[in-house]
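Quick question, first post here. What does this chain look like in 3D?
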Amino acid sequence: MTQPIALNTNRLCLRPFTLEDIDAVVALGSNKATHQKTGDVMIHTRAHASEIIEDTWLKEYTTYGYARMAVVHQADQKLIGFCGLKQIPALGVPDLGYRFLPQYWGQGIATEASHAVVTYGFDHQGLDLIRAFTMVGHTKSIRVLSKLGFEFEKRDHYPGETKNIYNWYRLKKENYERH
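> Answer (accepted):
Ran it through. Tokens below.
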């Protein structure tokens, strides 16, 4: 396992979150449009943002070598969302997740960031399988996963939850390499 590194694409820099990102996490986490198809709780306070950064992301970087990463738009040096892997202990594999401010939707940013993260997971973290989950009917997210080669597996609850039904996807390393 290696510690996360910065991943650079043509337009983006994906890097580990730091406590200096608290205000950007609140801006992203309190945006209703950003959360409408996630099923996650919203983040309205700096204390809540700090807790997520410290108690979730920073710990996951240390434990697994990966977690959600801050996505910085290089042209304006603004933190515009996150993309990264999150270990799902009940499944023993990570899931790919991403979320961006609405003004950056429809520009291929989710695909660009996700491609970098998936490549990192397979090539540098030695993963053989990555999962992803979307809310049923979230066609834009489904399209991103399709472009990366993820295959639909089933519809079921997210591990450990009983509230919403999600589409489950998976991507095996050997299929990604051929994609």
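The longest strand covers residues 78-88.
Strands lie at 7-8, 12-16, 68-73, 78-88, 93-100, 129-135, 151-157, 165-172.
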